[in-house]
Amino acid sequence: MAGTQRYLRYIVFALICLILLFFISSSSTVQTSWPTANVPQTTEPDTKGAVPKPDPLATDSNPPKTPNVDKELPPAIVPGDRMNATFVTLARNSDLWEIAKSIRHVEDRFNRKFNYDWVFLNDDDFNDEFKKVTTALVSGRTRYGKIPKEHWSFPDFIDQDKAAKVREEMKEKKIIYGDSVSYRHMCRYESGFFFRHPLMLEYEWYWRVEPSIELYCDINYDTFKWMAENKKKYSFVLSLYEYVETIPTLWEAAKNFSAHHPEHIAKDNSMKFLSDDDGKTYTNCHFWSNFEIGNLNWLRSKAYVDFFESLDHAGGFFYERWGDAPVHSIAAGLMLNKDEIHFFNDIAYYHVPFTHCPTGEQYRLDHKCHCNPKENFDWNGYSCTARFYETNGMQKPEGYDKEK
Fold first, then answer.
1. Residue 107, domain CATH
2. What is the pLDDT, as a whole number, of residue 51?
3. What confidence tens digit (pLDDT) does each residue in 156-215 have?
4. Mind telling me which InterPro entries this protein's record contains (predicted)?
5. Each residue's pLDDT tens digit, 315-345
6. Is 44 inside a domain boundary?
7. What is the extent of the structural domain holding 353?
8. What is the count of structural domains for the chain?
9. Is residue 234 part of a domain?
């Protein structure tokens, strides 16, 4: 009996071993595969079509490339082809944390869906911290360029003593930026040179972004593509009257240009926006250029370059304090047809001290806007947006009268 039990134990033990061997051999043939992310690599921007020749004054023959060339960019949320476009920012290293705020607004409200490039320009070298932080924030490529000295200095035809005297007089009158040399260089650069920088020559469209701006509503469509499809060349969100003390002779200089270059003046222009008396005097209305979406080929055209050079030799950037906003506005108002200029009511925007909050409650709700419509500047007496509507024969948006 004892022997029988012993044999049974051996048989049971042998069966258990066989079963264990079977499971071990079976499991060794199973392979676990993990899904891998299919993330597109960084690519160069589309440069199809004619590319303007580099400006001979742009001495940066080897502009620095983006530091995130090895960065795996996230896939764009919105499908479809992209335009040959970029954001562009003029900033210094000290502006880092203010431009970081602007980037987050633009990325969260728009660019995370489209992944457009971003070009940063500086009259000095960008430091590693600026590049590292901004690269981490932008969903597209970041590119960094240094402004040639020839574009950020007094041209040789400017009388330095006369310019210094003007700055002192403006300081005594407490005119904003009246005594600033760097502000004048900035205005001149934005008026006549940023679109000629080697990095910018690769693009056809630009969206200008400055430090400390805010976007209040979701933007769910490609603004660059919309501009192209609707044959627009310049756009704005805020317009207002310029400080007359800063541009006493700007309109005379513009009229002088028009008289000598009638071929550059559009037939269906926006003179009614610029003047109440058929061009004799200037309304001082301008599109606020700290926000612009525009066509770079227009700025690089002979018409615009001729206009800028005419103003530049008049000396008003230094003998007065001409801003790039009225310069761009007068150029667009005279040399573009009315229907080539667009007001983006749907882009909610803030730049101290003014707010553009889209008129229309349903739009604000649908696009998750967080601006206060009572702070909308559009229908304020110092705004020129109502004049733009009247110039173009447009009906003001429903509810505008409640925001006056």
1. 3.90.550.10
2. 38
3. 999 999 999 999 999 999 999 999 999 999 999 999 999 999 999 999 999 999 999 999
4. Glyco_trans_15, Nucleotide-diphossugar_trans
5. 999 999 999 999 999 999 999 999 999 999 9
6. no
7. 85-392
8. 1
9. yes
For residue 20, being part of any structural domain is answered with no
Supply 242's token pair: 């310029």
Checking if the pLDDT of 25 tops 60, the result is no
pTM comes to 0.82
Would 403 be classed as within a structural domain? no
For residue 229, indicate whether it is catalytic. Answer: no
Q: Which is the catalytic residue, given 107, 190, 292, 340?
A: 292
